[in-house]
Amino acid sequence: MSKRYEMRFAGSGGQGVILASVIMAEAAVIAGLRTVQSQAYGPEARGGVSKAETVVSREKIWYTKVTAPDFLLALTQASLNTYTKTLAEGAVVMMDDSLDCPETLDKSRVIAIPILRTAKEKVGKAFTANIVAVGAINAALQLFSDEELMEAVKRHIPAGTEEINRKALDAGRELITAGQAAAFAHHLG
Amino acid sequence: MSKAVLMQGNEAAVEGAIAAGMRVFAGYPITPSTEIAEQSSLRLPQVGGHFIQMEDEISSIAAVLGASAAGVKAMTATSGPGFSLMQENLGYGAMAEIPCVIVDVQRAGPSTGLPTSPAQGDYMQARWGTHGDHPVIALSPSSVLETYTLIIRAFNLSEKYRTPVIFLMDEIVGHMREGVELPRPETLRINRRKPSFHDGANKQCYFVPEGMYVPAMKPFGRGERYNITGLAHDEGGFPTNNTQVAGKLVSRLLAKVEDNADDIIRVEEYAMDDAETAVVCFGGTARAAMEAVLLARAEGRKVGMFRPITVWPFPEKQLKARLPQLKNILMAEHNHGQMLLEVQRTAGGSVPVAFLGKVDGTVITPAEILAKLQEMEV
Amino acid sequence: MPSDLIHQYMRIDHLPHIWCPGCGNGVIMRDVAVALDELINDPDTDFDRDNIVIVSGIGCSSRAAGYLDFNSIHTTHGRAIAFATGIKMANPKLHVVVLTGDGDCSAIGGNHLIHAARRNLGLTVICFNNDIYGMTGGQYSPTTPTGDKATTAPYGNLDRPFDIALLAAGAGASFAARGDVYHARETTAVIKQAMLHKGFALVDVYSVCPTYYGRKNKKGDAVEMLKWQRDNLIPLPRFNMMPPEEMAGKKAIGVLAENDFPEYSEEYQKLIDRFAAKGRK
């Protein structure tokens, strides 16, 4: 049970953090792992704080929620400030580099990268930020193969948008340096 | 590549219902059950079925009962506020013996409450929500895969006993996604409705032979004209003021569930063989309880989990069988103590029953269950 | 000696009915039976004994379902149209006839009425409109005229009444009509037309309740109340020819709205035809 890997994805409603969480869970299923994905959001479909969680394990997962995440993605200042208070020991935090990193964080475990700007400028569509993030997360943590991840993305995007999503995934992957990949790769126990 | 797919609990409810033969869904959007309506609207035309979005929950269950009377398996899905609105016609379904499945994805209440937060506060409403003495069967799943298989059972029981079955989900299970490998269709056991056509344009459509409980079902439009009413009725289905006939009818309705409890009730027990403490829970709460039990066992404590899958009728006999070995019971549920009352009644003072509940919309954690066990000096 | 019509289409064992002497509901039930008889015997329609379902709610009107020897379902108060919607969706080949009352369909069931009218699912709704809650002993209903008395309006009714046919038409019903007890022949013809109409059809049939509404409001006995209908409810062709000063206080009976809107179950069938092949098993 100690082998479960807890991931939390946080941002504002409409940024697609739930989908990012779902895609990571889908990739886990494709890779033959156990996973539980859940979310909390305001009753309105847009706006407000949005939080999603993916638990991944090689074993049966009982408790469905994240208590102390091993990984946190934060796309807004509010979500970064809130959710960095409950991290697991040695947790990896990925944040958009437009945000101010809280003083309390261990900087060696923080990946600050331009997710929102890359989506907008390099991919050309702001709404692909969640896919850029997914590409970057997997490049850093190396939980899944590129094929598994792309297949997971394909299962959750509208037909005809494969190209732009592939571009977003690649752009995300390129935000992670070889050094970061070596430092943050996670091997599921 | 694994054959498993990532599926949401609400989505699994629809897929299971379709596998069970559901071909009409009538509903009204309400968080956190809305995905069930959405998925039904997408899937039903693909299998030749009908989805209809009604003007409210009252008409939703009415349309479902109408569809079932016309010979088609039907379902609706809602959450607390909508479940409240459905109560009158739920009783109609019980009285007129019209099978259907009513999904309640529970959220925090009362009233509009916390629409996106989990709770299990409709447990007693599921039993006593509609007026008058009536039978109730309610099932509660704790995983996405179990949602799929158990809703098939809900339809089967509904057809077998000709009564509405409440599928008591909660936000935890409804909104979570898990990897599932669905059973192959040929491995599923589906109760088909056995219509009776034995007596032409008959006058005795509610006749039940001695020693049996459930009349055969005659769908509209198949050559048998008969009457259905929510009034106390005779075996011909016609209103009566005869107190003996009315008494016999209601007694039979109650007996068909009470006397067949062994067939209807299912329980999951984990590590109960030598348990001295039982954590009793149902639905999504089981996920935290199971983790807590495993952690307690790892520390050598004799704790087991007792999970009613059939939550109504309450598995009284099954829990009673465990009482002699138990020193303690902990009831954990996301309400202010509802199944607790059934557990206390069953324990009858012979075993102390502690309680861990939540009504703030947050989820009970394994740590909280462990802390409670500590406090109980388990 | 019951007539052939009664023998053929009513459940003799369950008669006599519960309605009071002078009540207009029996006449409306007869109109419905005659209309169905004519349709069943018309080789150009597919109406037969077993593909007709009578659905009713709660109230005096709704007891009619139990007396008519068809598939029948007596449902909960206000919900007949909603039950009927499910029946029709489950099996669009059925002819679904809803027998309801003014309280049943425009008070407690008002929401279902307007949405069914808007949706245009092929149901025929016959409202037995007696201006009062008869079953519970004479309380004012949504059609009780302003100023009239009822057991819950001892000083006169303050509410303004609904005109149910116009309400349905306003909500988008593709067929809305008005009938009454006095003009049985004309009303039967309109009911038959409503049953043949493809789409949602409503006929608001003015009944008479001498026991509660009549007595409370000094309207005389049943005969007096029928005479009022004769003099004040005018078949449309004649109504349209009347000079404006004669129209005052009078109402037309006949078909008030008729449109060829797409019928819901047919539209849904198109969806099934489009997507059924693509469905996963």
Key terms for this structure?
heterotrimer; A: 189 residues; Pyruvate-ferredoxin Oxidoreductase, domain 3; 6-stranded mixed sheet; 6 strands; B: 378 residues; alpha/beta; Rossmann fold; 2 domains; 5-stranded mixed sheet; 13 helices
Fold topology:
The complex is a heterotrimer of chains A (189), B (378) and C (281).
Chain A: E1 5-12, H1 17-30, E2 34-41, E3 49-57, E4 71-74, H2 77-83, E5 92-96, E6 110-113, H3 115-123, H4 129-141, H5 146-154, H6 162-174, H7 178-184
Parallel strand pairs in A: 1-4, 4-5, 5-6
Antiparallel strand pairs in A: 1-3, 2-3
Chain B: E1 5-8, H1 9-20, E2 24-27, H2 34-43, E3 50-53, H3 57-69, E4 74-78, H4 80-96, E5 100-108, E6 114-118, H5 123-128, E7 137-139, H6 144-161, E8 164-170, H7 171-175, E9 177-180, E10 227-229, H8 243-258, H9 261-264, E11 267-270, E12 277-280, H10 285-298, E13 303-308, E14 310-312, H11 316-320, E15 328-333, H12 339-347, E16 353-357, H13 366-375
Parallel strand pairs in B: 2-3, 2-4, 4-5, 5-8, 7-8, 12-13, 12-15, 15-16
Antiparallel strand pairs in B: 1-9, 5-6, 7-14, 11-13
Chain C: H1 4-9, H2 25-40, E1 52-56, H3 64-67, E2 71-74, H4 80-90, E3 95-101, H5 102-108, H6 110-119, E4 123-129, E5 132-133, E6 139-140, H7 164-170, E7 175-180, H8 184-196, E8 201-206, H9 210-216, H10 222-232, E9 233-235, H11 236-241, H12 244-247, E10 251-258, H13 264-275
Helix pairs in contact in C: 2-8, 5-6
- Largest sheet, strands/sense/barrel of chain C: 8 strands, mixed
Radius of gyration of chain B: 21 Å
CATH topology of chain C, by name, is Rossmann fold
What's the total count of β strands of chain C?
10
Residue runs with pLDDT of under 50 for 5 or more positions of chain C:
none
Structure, explained:
The complex is a heterotrimer of chains A (189), B (378) and C (281). Chain A is α/β, with parallel strands linked by helices. Chain A is built from seven helices and six strands, in the order βαβββαββααααα. Chain A has one domain (5-184): Pyruvate-ferredoxin Oxidoreductase, domain 3, CATH 3.40.920. Chain A is globular, with a radius of gyration of 15 Å. Chain A has helices at residues 17-30, 77-83, 115-123, 129-141, 146-154, 162-174, 178-184, and strands spanning 5-12, 34-41, 49-57, 71-74, 92-96, 110-113. Chain B has 378 residues and is an alpha/beta fold. Chain B has two domains: 5-187, 3-Layer(aba) Sandwich (Rossmann fold), CATH 3.40.50.970; 269-375, Rossmann fold. Chain B has 13 helices and 16 strands. Chain B has helices at residues 9-20, 34-43, 57-69, 80-96, 123-128, 144-161, 171-175, 243-258, 261-264, 285-298, 316-320, 339-347, 366-375, and strands at residues 5-8, 24-27, 50-53, 74-78, 100-108, 114-118, 137-139, 164-170, 177-180, 227-229, 267-270, 277-280, 303-308, 310-312, 328-333, 353-357. In chain B, strands 2, 3, 4, 5, 6, 7, 8 and 14 form an eight-stranded mixed β-sheet that branches. Chain B has a five-stranded mixed β-sheet with strand order 11-13-12-15-16, sandwiched between helices. The N and C termini of chain B lie far apart (44 Å). The model of chain B has no long low-confidence stretch (mean pLDDT 95). Chain C has 281 residues and is α/β, with parallel strands linked by helices. Chain C has one domain (4-278): Thiamin diphosphate (ThDP)-binding fold, Pyr/PP domains (Rossmann fold). The mean pLDDT of chain C is 96.
